[in-house]
Amino acid sequence: xxxxxxxxxLGTNYRREIIGGITTFLAMAYILVVNPLTLSLAxxxxxxxxxxxxxxxxxxxxxxxxxxxxxxxxxxxxYPVALAPGLGLNAFFAYTVVLNYGISWQVALTGVFLxxxxxxxxxxxxxxxxxxxxxxxxxxxxxxxxxxLFITFIGFQNAGIIVNNDAVLVGLGDLTNGNTLLxxxxxxxxxxxxxxxxxxxVFIGMVITAIVGMLTGLIPLPxxxxxxxxxxxxxxxxxxxxxxxxxxxxxxxQMLMVVLTFLxxxxxxxxxxxxxxxxxxxxxxxxxxxxxGKALFSDAMAGAIGAVLGTSTTTSxxxxxxxxxxxxxxxxxxxxxxxxxxxxxxxxPLLSVITSHVTAPALIIVGVLMVSSxxxxxxKKFEIAVPAFLTVICxxxxxxxxxGIAIGFIFYPITMIVKGRAKEIHxxxxxxxxxxxxxxxxxx
Length: 444
Known about the structure:
Layout: H1 7-10, H2 14-28, H3 30-39, H4 55-77, E1 83-85, H5 89-100, H6 105-124, H7 127-134, H8 137-159, E2 162-165, E3 169-172, H9 178-195, H10 201-215, H11 238-245, H12 247-250, H13 253-280, H14 292-309, E4 314-316, H15 320-325, H16 331-344, H17 356-370, H18 382-398, H19 401-418, H20 427-443
Antiparallel strand pairs: 1-4, 2-3
């Protein structure tokens, strides 16, 4: 096992990989709660039941798709990257496609399935890998730093430190709120542990924060440890059967736009996440992503299987960086995370103690580690600084990894051409320039 995952070569061991896997799982566990609530449109009142996906079935589909994707990524691609139904893509699925467009959730699942099949085709032909490897090193560093700021922003939101402000968009939250104070406590503890150089600092910080939360009554003690597994039948296989039962709703121009949006966002969210995790773990070689084809295929296959199981797009999770921060370096970490997602089917009540306020410190600290890649960018060259800065800043401001990448990549060929460095631009970057422009013109 150690030889298969190259433990010695990457300077790791079972303890670090297991802790990394547990840390990644804890940082991602919220999706087991959030995804069923989102896809069932639980926050929207007065909707007919036909518009809502079954909450229990989606929970099972979420856990199974996360387990499958993480195991495949770990065992085959050997990356410390875990997968699950993506946050943001599930909101697009529920609130835009189903609620606003009026497309049934059955047909929407078919859209996810079709987008994933296109993903698989692009991966098998090597197009996805070529696009990722064509991205200049400076922009790859910018993508990693941008994701760092983005997940830090998410962490501050989850902690209640940053909140909505109608006058200026965002503002400081109520720092006297008990849960916010718990998150601040978690940040301080994790910072102390990290500063002391403890490898498991992120994981230990979450455990201590959860315990303090229960002792202070901020986090309710779980009523049960083991619970029954709901039936997946209401959503299983619907993505495929809808092709035959509702062809008039699937083969439409509106549905084409939905499929293309799923395709675009998942493509560049995945690319950004893989680059960020690989860079943080020190796995990049000569600006190339080793085993990129296997990693991308694992991601694409997980999306297709997830749709068949009955959930929105399954994709690589940026929270995997929390596991890397805890010492993870190999695919064994993703295997551990995948097994924990399977076990979560039985121990769902126990997950209630891992609240967003408990995981917020991990996201914030990981953001600190990821923005270190800003030092690799040549800020003195304006033609590089502009696209790099826009990539970094637009991710948190637009709340989208894909949009940040798109804006930065549109400006890159513009500044390089004006500077007289057109020959240094890879032909695929021109292609992406056109694709991103069309995305903003038509799909947005």
